[in-house]
Protein: RHG15 protein
Organism: Calyptomena viridis
Amino acid sequence: PEEKLNLDDSQWEDIHVVTGALKMFFRELPEPLFPYCFFEQFVEAIKIQDNATRIKSIRTLVKKLPRPNYDTMKILFEHLKKIAAKESVNLMSTQSLGIVFGPTLLRPEKETGNMAVHMLYQNQIVELMLSEYSKIFGS
């Protein structure tokens, strides 16, 4: 049976509860928002030294995503960008958002020994997609 949420409930006033629910939603998906088969490609793209080429590669990969993933990602990153814009109030920079959402949205299918390395790239990918949102998602 489908659960009905009462968003007027006082528990939803705490932004940490809302963020936790959002992160849990993405963590509980059968596959991450960035599908497993794209993980290595995104990691390779973020390693590119030239910034313009790196952005272009990420944009190309994002455009190849299944439509529901792309649409969800575009809305989510647009929302996270608004959060980062209020960094002076909420202390959430693009870097902080990368740390919080990177491992939730993007992870390898099989965890290997290089988890710390993966985490760095996961964070950097989310951070780049936020800071270069218009170049990546723009028409």
Q: What stands out?
A: The longest helix spans residues 67-85. Residues 55 and 128 are 8 Å apart (CA to CA). The two ends are 40 Å apart (CA to CA). The mean pLDDT is 90.
